[in-house]
Every structure is written in C-alpha cells, then in structure tokens.
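Title: Prediction job returns without error message
Component: structure pipeline
Severity: low
Priority: P3
Assignee: unassigned

Description:
Job completed but the reporter wants confirmation the result is attached to the right record. Sequence as submitted:
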Amino acid sequence: MKLKRINVLGLQETHLIPNHLASVHATYPRLLVFNSPDPDSAGATAGVAFAINKAITRTDNTRFIELVPGQAALLVLNWRETEATTILNIYAPNGAGEHPAFWQAVQDALQAHGITTKDLFGDFNLVEDEIDHTPTRSDRPAASKARTVYEWDQVIGCVPSDHDMISVRYAPVNATATGPGRWTMPLHLLTNTDFLSEIKDAGRKLESDITDAANSRTPTHNP
C-alpha cells in the first residue's frame, strides 16, 4: 500500500480474530483496519475487511457498517469537506444456490441503513468462463455482469494467492483536476558530498561576481 500509494484496500476471506486484528494495528500503525468476521467461525472462514492507508487518506468521521457479518460491509469516507464516498465490500457464498438470498440480504440491509452505492468490489465467487471453475460449471449470466471500470490495473501481491488483485483509480465527477506537480530535488543529494561541494563553489563564484559588479558599476556599465 505504501509503494503503490493505495488509499483503501478491500480484503476478503480475512479469517481475522480480534487478537490478530490488534496485532496488525500494533505492527502497522499507519494502517486503519476495519474487519467484519464470520459470526460463527471467525478464524476459519469468510471475513471482509477494509485497510486504510492513514498516511495519505483522511480517516476522521470514517464509518464502517456491517451489512452481512463476514460477507458484506460498507465503508463511508469523507471526500474533501462536504462529499462522502461509500464503498461496498463483498465476499459472496461459494454455492450459486445461496446467492439470491445473500444479495437480497445485502439489499435489505442497505435499505435499512438508508444507503445507496454504486461502488463495490470483492470476491463474488462467479466466473465468466466455465473452465475457470473446478469442476467446470457455468454461472448465471446475469450474475456475472459487473460495472465498467475505466482506469484499472492488475496488481501482483506479495502474498501467494489464486486470485488477482485489481487496483482502481477513483475520483468524483466534480473533483478538482490536479497536475503532475513541481519538480523537487531528490533528498539523497543533501548528503552527496560531490554535489554539496559544487553548490558551495557555485555560491562562492556568485558572491564574487556580485562584489565585482558592485565595485565596477558606472552610469554606462550596470551589470
């Protein structure tokens, strides 16, 4: 998250128990992690979580809402001063037959909280091609539809997994456009002796030139 400058990371199948979550916060103080564990077997199955990079993300007034414990949770983040971004994190059941009841539970929970969101990610346990299932089977076509993402990239994680991680660049439609920024001197040059020596030589020459110019200035020669 630090190297890729990821603001929010959505995690599924976290298997996090409270002691493990406390250990994560103690080990990585720049992360704020919200976890929704499976209510019956937190350390063995399911679990969804949000990890927030506090170094580059505002966390004041952040809200975390469990919709279906261990399988669906919401994160509400402040965007600038007045706007909020709501993200839905999903870990859907493995069995296709459980999906209708699960998605109905998610919809009911959203309505109960008075929240609507079009931004979601997660592990939906659905594939577009039959060969991606073992054993081979087809998912319902309607369930495989996903919202189009216009700027995304595949991320190779440091933890071995049979799932690819996807990163998405997100901003509200009316967000202020930002440029590439201004050039800054690399910090390592501050301890580079050759570079510092050249800076000193250039400074001495400039000081000498200023002195000479002051002493040689005339009404017709004004350097």
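Comment from assignee: result matches the submitted record. Confidence is low (pLDDT under 50) at residues 142-151.
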